[in-house]
Amino acid sequence: MAGNGRGFLLVSARVIVAAIAANAALLSVSARADEKIFDELRFGASTSIQGGDEREDGIFPEITVFFDPFGHSTATDWKQQLARPRVNLGTSIGTQGEATQVFAGFAWTVNFDEKIFAEAGFGGVWHNGELDSNDDGPALGCRLLFHEYLGAGYNITEHWNVVAQVAHSSHANLCDGPNNGMTRAGLQVGYKF
């Protein structure tokens, strides 16, 4: 069973990498058409919201880049917005000896009006945290984990926004070892190009 879990994680990671590569190819075509490579850049910080020995110390600076290969920006209603996810690539940088994450995946954004929006994301993450045991922070079991997040945002202007989000990374008990996971919450400021 443990071998099947690792195989599943490996296949999942390959699917995510293939999707990103395919989207990168689409991005290069669309970049030539309108010279816009990035859709949005976000930067901010988060902190661990786990309790007890699984809590991570410090603040985690974050940066995320969003791409729009499926035309999310041209969607006219919530159904089209959900059918056209954006692709994201980012990092959450460990401080005070805690895990750094590098993540990629898809983000679904729905605008409730011109100012308020909600977002959900799903993908994969690589981290450099502890795998088997950790006296001060989570034991994570394997290097590649699933990564999902929920966020609520506010458009300050046409280009600037602020997003509050909660992100979680774990392996869903699909590989050997512990599965404490990492759960972090924070704020990011975004700039739409």
Note down, in words, how this protein is organized.
With 193 residues, the protein is an alpha+beta fold. It is built from 2 helices and 8 strands. The protein has an 8-stranded antiparallel barrel with strand order 1-2-3-4-5-6-7-8. The radius of gyration is 17 Å and the shape is elongated. Mean pLDDT is 86; it is low at 27-32.
Order of helices and strands: HEEHEEEEEE
Q: Level of helix content?
A: 10-25%
From the alpha carbons, calculate the radius of gyration and give it in angstroms: 17 Å
Q: Name the poorly predicted regions.
A: 27-32
Structure summarized in a few sentences:
By secondary structure, the protein is an alpha+beta fold. It is 20% helix and 42% strand.
Question: What's the arrangement of secondary structure elements?
Answer:
Blueprint: H1 2-34, E1 40-48, E2 59-67, H2 78-83, E3 86-92, E4 101-111, E5 116-127, E6 144-155, E7 160-170, E8 182-192
Antiparallel strand pairs: 1-2, 1-8, 2-3, 3-4, 4-5, 5-6, 6-7, 7-8
